[in-house]
């Protein structure tokens, strides 16, 4: 019984020591990231509500949601549902605001690939 108590006490002390060391390392890592300009200072300032919500609610899963939207967008293009693609492109760009490749590809796709499928100017 006493042996188990000592094991638990040692485990708790070790956990506290490791958490203390982690806080020191984490602080240094955060300052190094800020010095290298790898973080956004105010990422949610003046952001549209959709972007702010998805940034907070989805967190790291924002990229997965954007990937699913990319797949759906490709499927919509194959099926000829171009107007739904415009909405999907808007959502993709809002989910990945700093990924300029999405802006370039979606703009090119809509301007040069999709526009030639319409026969009249009104479309």
Explain how this protein is built:
It is a single chain. The protein is mainly α. The protein folds into two domains: 39 residues; 80 residues, no CATH class. It is 73% helix and 0% strand. The chain has five helices and no strands.
Summarize the structure.
The protein has 5 helices and no strands. The protein has helices spanning 2-35, 49-57, 62-79, 82-95, 100-114. The mean pLDDT is 83.
Topology of helices and strands:
Layout: H1 2-35, H2 49-57, H3 62-79, H4 82-95, H5 100-114
Number of helices: 5
Strand content: under 5%
Class by helix and strand content?
mainly alpha
Q: Please give the share of residues in helix.
A: over 70%
Integer tally of domains: 2
Kindly provide the radius of gyration, computed on alpha-carbon positions and rounded to a whole number of angstroms.
24 Å
Write down the overall mean pLDDT. 83
> Mind describing the biggest β-sheet?
none
Ranges where pLDDT stays below 50 over 5 or more residues in a row are: none
Ends distance: 80 Å
Overall 3D geometry? elongated
How many strands appear in the DSSP assignment? 0
Provide the succession of SSEs.
HHHHH
């Amino acid at each position: 019984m006493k042996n188990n108590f000592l094991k638990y006490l040692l485990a708790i002390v070790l956990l506290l020591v490791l958490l203390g060391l982690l806080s020191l390392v984490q602080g240094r890592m955060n300052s190094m990231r800020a010095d290298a300009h790898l973080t956004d200072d105010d990422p949610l300032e003046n952001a549209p509500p959709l972007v702010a919500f998805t940034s907070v609610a989805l967190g790291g899963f924002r990229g997965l949601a954007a990937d699913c939207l990319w797949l759906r967008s490709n499927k919509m293009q194959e099926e000829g549902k171009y107007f739904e693609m415009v909405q999907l492109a808007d959502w993709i760009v809002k989910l990945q605001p700093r990924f300029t490749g999405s802006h370039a590809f979606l703009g090119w796709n809509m301007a040069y690939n999709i526009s030639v499928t319409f026969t009249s100017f009104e479309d």
